[in-house]
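Run log // design_07
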């Protein structure tokens, strides 16, 4: 991690805005932060920590960040540009602080705020304000920075920024705390996760083995229960003997015992033995079942033979009886057959006879219809005796002429309406042309209207900047109003203080006069006070005489020492009050002068009026913005309307042209149809009249023609019907129509006679065929079948088959179950062996990584990796420590805690080897100077190792805020030499110190100085 630029404002003692380019400052690799104690050097480190974490080093509240010297309303903030392996970022934070209210008097609490940007590569230089915003929410900024920086605040203040009081925290840290710092810095949590993952895999592997073993046991239990089925008692074989049990109890007991011992080979052997035993029992049961089935088949054959003989005997008896009955009914059936034959021959002639009667009736109707048609055709000049060819010609001529006139009838009827419609359409076309002209006039006016809109819009072009200026002026006016009000309040306070000051000055003068009077009275009364102490024979303290002939006497207004002391104290009190009021007045006058200058000498009323004017200007600017938007929208709408009108005008002109063409075409067609109607009309009143006359003539000719044709066809049909009747009577061997009528019978009687004759004939044939069948003809009628005896024998055989089939089925089912369970058991055994093979390496590796069996170091994988990294850090630190301590001290890694206690996280303890005494020392026993340079070597060693690790956290900046004053000149020279070597690796080290010698050694520095007002300022020297 490297720090590039720090900017702060109204932070700590720094009231103004200050910016520090750390890249320029650290070009040489070493820079100094110098200044008097308490001037604010540590505030710069606090600002860096606050920018990244939102809190100060050591968890101190950030409330003290807001500068008490900053002007009211100036927002405190810290901005830091830094880079890590994740990229370059800019973070801005403002702490929680109180600010003046924007409206009214008093203050309000402003909550903390934060913003974060990602900067493009190469944007670390000052002035690069661009970047991609990531977040502007305090919580989200904190979360993002935790991901970007990786180190938490405690780790950051142990490795990058080392503030006062925490410089030696990594040296004195507990091993557990060092573990967290090293793990975050070196990214070794992957080994922790690997160790956890191996433990999870080992648990899963052991679970898989246990599951496979449980599956073997469960399958053995199922197999034992299946193999034990039918093991008690005996079974009847096909010959009536018994087969003993196959020793299944011993097999199942041994099988369960082998499963309990997880003896896979023995389990497989016993399972196969159980399968073999059940296969033998199945074979014996199936043999007995087959013998029973053969006996059942023989009994079935005997029963079928008996039933067949009984059936044939019964059939022969029935056939003999039926033959006797048929012989008795033969004469009556012959008479019915004769009647049926005559009726059937007459029925054949009936249709021909009926056809001849229908032909005669048709001939009569046709002759009458011809006479009526001839009468109707007379008025149209058609003679009754016209031949068929003439009638056809007359009909065709009328039809042809009528076909030509029919379309003209419709045309003639539409002519008046078409003429009227044509006139209406011409009027509408004229109106449309007027609308087109109106549209054209509107389109012609559009350019001028648009120019007027553009001119009006031009007056509002700068409304945005005018509004922003108005807002700025309003905010400035509000600030001036607040300052004017504050100035007015300050002037009132000045007047009050001046009044109090005058009174205090008078009181001070009175106190001085009172003290002077008291002292004069004290001086005047000193003689009386001395005289009171004179004694005869004792020397006078003033003149030394032993006689006192005329001692002085004290007056009534004599002042004592107590009176003098009280008067002096009263004078001091009034003088102090006067000085306090004078200082307060001076401060108020300075504040009043500053406020008068800030508000440009405006009164509250004038400032209020300016605020009102500014508000009106803002409102006017806002209204101008709205009007600008309205005019812009009007211009857009105007252009859209112009485009619409232009398109409508083009469409209207096209429609007018097409309408004119359609009107001309319709007028031409109307004239043509009028000419055709006149030609078709001829001498008649109208085409319709002529068509009606032709239609009536055509119908009369067609009716007469159709009647003549029908009369001719009816005569020919009658003649043919008489010929057909004669031929039918001859074929039916009947004399005439009367004989036909006598022979006819009703259909139901015919059907009954036919049924009787056909049934008798069929029965005769059936009985004769039955008596001639081979199985019937050989019988005599004296046979005895014995069906009941054979049926009893068959039922006994069937019962034996059912019993033996059930036993064979059960044996097959049990054998199949045992075989399936044996196969499942084999698969379960295979799975158990495979799970054991897979689990072995995983469990061993997990045990090694987790400090389990086989790990002689008793150290986990994650701890082992950190031990090696920590040893590298200690080795790198010792390289510098040897030079800084003249070879006296060296750091050693130990497995115990400092102080001899065993560490729960073994291996991250530290002790110091003193080569003068060759005895180890606890780091807490080092002196202040020794602790400083040992801690410095440890921090630099940590940075060296991190830089050498690919993918680790880059510790490119180190800032040290204590300890240099505790070094003697020789040690300081050695330490500075070591720090100077850091520039070779591209690192930057910042040193915070007020030691004078440091200024001579480090030219690049930030000098912090106090100002007369009590605030601080800084100067960067590169």
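design_07 sequence
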């Amino acid at each position: 991690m490297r720090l590039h630029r720090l900017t702060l404002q109204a932070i700590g003692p720094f009231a103004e805005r200050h910016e520090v380019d750390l890249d320029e400052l650290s070009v040489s690799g070493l820079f100094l932060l110098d200044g008097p104690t308490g001037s604010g050097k540590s505030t710069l480190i606090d600002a860096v920590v606050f920018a990244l974490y939102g809190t100060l080093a050591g968890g101190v509240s950030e409330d003290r960040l807001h500068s008490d010297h900053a002007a009211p309303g100036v927002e405190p903030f810290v901005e830091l540009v830094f880079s890590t392996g994740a990229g370059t970022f800019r973070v801005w934070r403002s702490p929680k602080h109180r600010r003046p209210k924007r409206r009214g008097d008093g203050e309000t609490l402003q909550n903390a705020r934060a913003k974060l940007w990602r900067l493009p590569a190469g944007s670390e230089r000052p002035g690069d304000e661009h970047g991609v915003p990531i977040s502007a929410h305090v919580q989200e900024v904190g979360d993002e920075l935790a991901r970007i920086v990786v180190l938490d605040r405690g780790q950051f203040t142990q490795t990058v920024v080392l503030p006062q009081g925490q410089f030696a925290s990594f040296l004195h840290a507990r091993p557990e705390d060092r573990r967290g710092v090293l793990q975050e810095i070196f990214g070794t949590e992957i080994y922790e996760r690997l160790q956890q993952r191996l433990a999870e895999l080992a648990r899963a592997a052991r679970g898989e083995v246990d599951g496979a073993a449980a599956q073997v046991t469960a399958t053995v239990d199922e197999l034992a229960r299946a193999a034990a089925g039918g093991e008690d008692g005996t079974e009847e074989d096909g010959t009536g003997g018994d087969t003993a049990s196959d020793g299944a109890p011993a097999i199942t007991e041994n099988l369960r015992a082998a499963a309990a011992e997880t003896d896979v080979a023995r389990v497989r052997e016993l399972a196969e033995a159980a399968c073999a035993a059940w296969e033998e029992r199945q074979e014996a049961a199936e043999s007995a079942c087959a013998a029973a089935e053969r006996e059942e088949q023989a009994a079935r054959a005997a029963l079928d033979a008996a039933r067949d003989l009984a059936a044939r005997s019964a059939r022969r008896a029935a056939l003999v009886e039926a033959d006797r009955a048929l012989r008795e009914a033969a004469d009556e059936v012959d008479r019915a057959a004769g009647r049926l034959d005559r009726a059937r021959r007459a029925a054949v002639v009936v249709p021909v006879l009926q056809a001849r009667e229908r032909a005669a009736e048709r001939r009569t109707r046709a002759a009458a219809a011809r006479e009526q048609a001839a009468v109707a055709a007379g008025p149209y000049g058609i003679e009754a005796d016209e031949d068929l060819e003439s009638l056809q010609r007359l009909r065709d001529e009328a039809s042809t002429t009528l076909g030509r006139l029919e379309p003209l009838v419709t045309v003639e009827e539409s002519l008046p309406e078409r003429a009227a419609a044509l006139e209406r359409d011409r009027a509408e076309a004229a109106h449309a042309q007027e609308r087109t002209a109106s549209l054209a006039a509107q389109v012609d006016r559009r350019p001028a209207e648009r120019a007027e809109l553009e001119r009006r819009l031009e007056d509002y072009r700068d409304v945005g900047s005018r509004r922003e200026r108005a807002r700025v002026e309003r905010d400035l006016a509000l600030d001036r109003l607040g300052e004017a009000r504050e100035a007015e309040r300050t002037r009132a306070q000045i007047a009050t203080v001046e009044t109090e000051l005058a009174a205090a000055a008078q009181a001070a003068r009175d106190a001085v006069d009172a003290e002077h009077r008291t002292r004069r009275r004290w001086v005047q009364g000193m003689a009386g006070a001395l005289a009171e102490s004179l004694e005869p024979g004792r020397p006078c303290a003033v003149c030394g005489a032993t006689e006192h002939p005329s001692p002085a006497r004290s007056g009534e207004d004599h002042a004592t020492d107590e009176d003098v002391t009280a008067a002096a104290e009263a004078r001091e009190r009034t003088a102090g009050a006067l000085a306090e009021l004078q200082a307060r007045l001076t401060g108020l006058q300075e504040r009043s002068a500053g406020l008068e200058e800030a508000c440009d000498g405006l009164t509250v009323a004038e400032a209020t009026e300016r605020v009102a004017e500014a508000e009106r200007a803002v409102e006017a600017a806002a209204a101008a913005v709205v009007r600008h938007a309205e005019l812009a929208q009007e211009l857009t709408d105007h252009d859209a309307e112009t485009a619409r009108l232009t398109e409508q005008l083009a469409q209207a002109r096209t429609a007018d042209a097409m309408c004119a063409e359609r009107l001309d075409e319709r007028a031409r067609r109307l004239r043509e149809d009028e000419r055709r109607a006149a030609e078709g009309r001829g001498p008649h009143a109208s085409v319709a009249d002529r068509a009606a006359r032709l239609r009536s003539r055509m119908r009369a000719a067609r009716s007469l023609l159709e009647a003549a044709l029908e009369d001719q066809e009816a005569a020919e049909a009658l003649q043919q019907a008489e010929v057909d009747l004669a031929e039918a009577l001859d074929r039916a061997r009947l004399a005439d129509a009367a004989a036909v009528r006598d022979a006819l019978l009703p259909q139901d009687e015919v059907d009954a006679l036919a049924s009787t004759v056909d049934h008798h004939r069929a029965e005769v044939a059936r009985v004769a065929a039955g008596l001639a069948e081979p199985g019937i003809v050989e019988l005599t009628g004296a046979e005895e079948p014995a069906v009941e005896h054979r049926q009893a024998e068959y039922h006994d055989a069937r019962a034996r088959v059912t019993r033996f089939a059930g036993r064979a089925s059960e044996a097959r089912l049990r054998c199949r179950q045992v075989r399936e369970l044996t196969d499942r058991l084999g698969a379960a055994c295979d799975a158990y062996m495979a799970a054991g093979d897979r689990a072995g390496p995983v469990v061993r590796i997990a045990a090694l990584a987790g400090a389990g069996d086989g790990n002689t170091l008793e150290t986990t994988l994650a701890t082992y990796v950190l031990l090696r990294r920590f040893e590298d850090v200690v080795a790198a630190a010792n390289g510098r420590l040897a030079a800084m301590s003249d070879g006296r001290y060296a750091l050693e890694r130990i497995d115990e805690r400092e102080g001899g206690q065993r560490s729960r996280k073994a291996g991250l303890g530290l002790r110091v080897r003193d080569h003068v005494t060759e005895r180890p020392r606890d780091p807490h026993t080092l002196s202040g100077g020794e602790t400083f340079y040992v801690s410095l070597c440890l921090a630099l060693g940590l940075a060296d190792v991190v830089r050498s690790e690919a993918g680790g956290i880059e510790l490119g900046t180190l800032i040290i805020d204590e300890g240099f004053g505790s070094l003697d000149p020789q040690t300081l020279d050695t330490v500075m030499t070591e720090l100077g070597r850091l520039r070779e690796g591209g690192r930057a080290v910042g040193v915070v110190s007020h030691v004078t010698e440091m200024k001579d050694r480090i030219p690049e520095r930030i000098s912090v100085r106090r100002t007369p007002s009590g605030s601080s300022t800084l100067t960067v020297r590169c």
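Residues 468-602 form one domain.
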